[in-house]
Write a structure and sequence with these properties.
about 350 residues, alpha/beta, 5-stranded mixed beta sheet, 4-stranded antiparallel beta sheet, about 15% strand
């Protein structure tokens, strides 16, 4: 099975972004992050409103509230999406200022060669709950057994990437399976209803799958880099006040994780459990396992992180998902490096 080429992907991106705007699923309206309040000079943080995306649940917003770090001198409007790919579509459409995602969505969002955004920070994090699962009662126990089977996956995300890599490790090609692109909720429904033999997903969808008896047949734990990218629109980066606000926000998120790790894991697990509908002990175990695998930390952009995303882009080109391999350094920027380092050290 071949997936969308660059032109088709561009058309789909435009349609999806328009749909986001028309359905009104985003909080806030207007143009890019504004640094021009009523009568403001354009340099005051109080005049800035950042429209920021979140995936699965508004984890960062909850973290900041839990740590008492949500008293920002600027406004933050959080919007919830099913994946980082949808966030990047919203940034492209001017409906979001800041997106958080894995390394994959920006690659596809830039596929038309005209990205209006830049990767400005890297958050190191865990690669757990990124799995291929088979439903309860299935006889499939390995990736190799997926040959000739129908496999759901979330297109243009980590799930797309690690499914491809796991198939290669098992000696299979993408065309050896019937690949079915599905959103996380529809993928879960298809898995439970028998419409697919396995599903490659992440986050809450994997948690929910295990709650319903699904078995892990492949993990991305050692495949994914652990680099999660923070991307800002060019309009946002064009405002000095918005850049300062964003650097401050990312540093606050970094401090909030440190606050939880400092003996408050169980209390935050209660917050997580309420949002993800899982037992507190399970949420606590997941947080501790995640931080044990790789501590969550915010970092400025670097040549090493840029090279890591280039490897991902090259893989998608080999898969046939991209007609040409983009040069990812073209949509990375060090514009936030200095203010972010300052904010992280304060």
């Amino acid at each position: 099975m071949r997936v969308l080429g660059v032109r088709a992907a561009g058309r789909a991106l435009s349609l999806a972004a328009a749909a986001v705007l028309l359905t009104g699923t985003l909080t806030g309206c207007g143009g890019p992050a504004s640094a021009e309040g009523a009568g403001g000079s354009g340099d005051s943080l109080s005049s800035v409103t950042l429209r920021v995306g979140a995936t699965g649940w508004k984890r960062e917003e909850a973290l900041l509230k839990f740590a008492g770090l949500d008293d920002t001198p600027y406004q933050v409007r959080w919007s919830l999406f099913q994946g980082g790919d949808k966030q990047l579509e919203a940034v492209r459409a001017g409906a979001l200022d800041v997106a958080e995602s894995s390394e994959i969505p920006p690659v596809f969002a830039a596929a038309d060669g005209r990205p209006n955004f830049k990767v400005v920070a890297v958050q190191r994090g865990n690669t757990l709950n990124q799995e291929v699962v088979a439903p309860k009662g299935s006889k499939i126990t390995t990736i190799a057994q997926l040959k000739g089977k129908k496999v759901g996956y979330v297109k243009n995300t980590t799930a797309h990437y690690f499914l491809y890599r796991l198939l290669k490790q098992a000696g299979l090609q993408w065309d050896d399976i019937t690949a079915a692109p599905l959103e996380p909720d529809k993928g879960m429904a298809a898995l439970n209803g028998g419409a697919v033999d396995a599903f490659a997903g992440y986050g809450n969808s994997v948690i929910a799958a295990h709650q319903q008896g699904a078995r892990t047949i492949g993990s991305a734990r050692d495949i994914l880099s652990g680099n999660f990218l923070w991307t800002a629109s060019d309009g946002t980066l064009g405002s000095a006040a918005a850049r300062r606000a964003l650097a401050d926000l990312l540093a606050r998120i970094d401090r909030a994780y440190a606050y939880v790790r400092d003996g408050r894991e169980k209390e935050f697990a209660k917050v997580t459990a309420a949002a993800t509908h899982q037992p507190v002990d399970e949420a606590l175990a997941e947080f501790r396992s995640a931080e044990a695998q790789r501590r969550t930390e915010m970092r400025p952009v670097s040549a090493r992180a840029t090279a890591s995303q280039q490897e991902v882009a090259d893989s998608f080109h080999d898969l046939g998902a991209l007609r040409r391999t983009p040069k990812v350094s073209g949509f990375w920027s060090n514009a936030l490096n200095s203010p972010l380092r300052k904010a992280l050290s304060s």
